[in-house]
Each structure stands twice: as C-alpha cells, then as structure tokens.
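Good morning,

Attaching, inline, the backbone tokens for the sequence recovery test we're adding to the shared suite. The designed sequence is right after.
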C-alpha cells in the first residue's frame, strides 16, 4: 500500500483537505464531496492544504479507505 496519493490520481468528487497542522506534517486528508474526510476527521477549518498548494494526501486512514473504496 502506498504512503501518499498525489491529487492528480484522485477520482472525480475527491480532493485534498487539511488544516495548517496537516500542511506542516504532510498528512493531508482525502475529502469526498458530500461526505467529508475519508477518515472521519471533521473538516472544520479553512482548507490550508489548498491554500498552501499541497499536492499529496498523507493521512494513512484516508489513503486506506480511499483505496478500499475505489477497489484499488
């Protein structure tokens, strides 16, 4: 299993989301439109991942659930 997923690899209706801590720690979440972060972490902040140009998801739980959901 991969440790990161590049934003260009995400299927439609999925994008990256995260707060400043996620930017600093390289732990951006994968956000599914209409559902939220794949790992269940609330998306209550400004999307600092987008603001700072982060291009890779690094949340292990999000990556695992995303891969399972798309039958990777």
């Amino acid at each position: 299993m991969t440790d990161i997923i590049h934003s260009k690899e995400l299927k439609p209706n999925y994008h990256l989301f995260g707060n400043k801590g996620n930017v600093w720690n390289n732990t951006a979440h994968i956000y599914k439109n209409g559902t939220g972060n794949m790992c269940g972490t609330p998306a209550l902040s400004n999307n600092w991942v987008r603001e700072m140009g982060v291009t890779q998801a690094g949340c292990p739980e999000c990556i695992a659930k995303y891969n399972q959901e798309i039958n990777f």
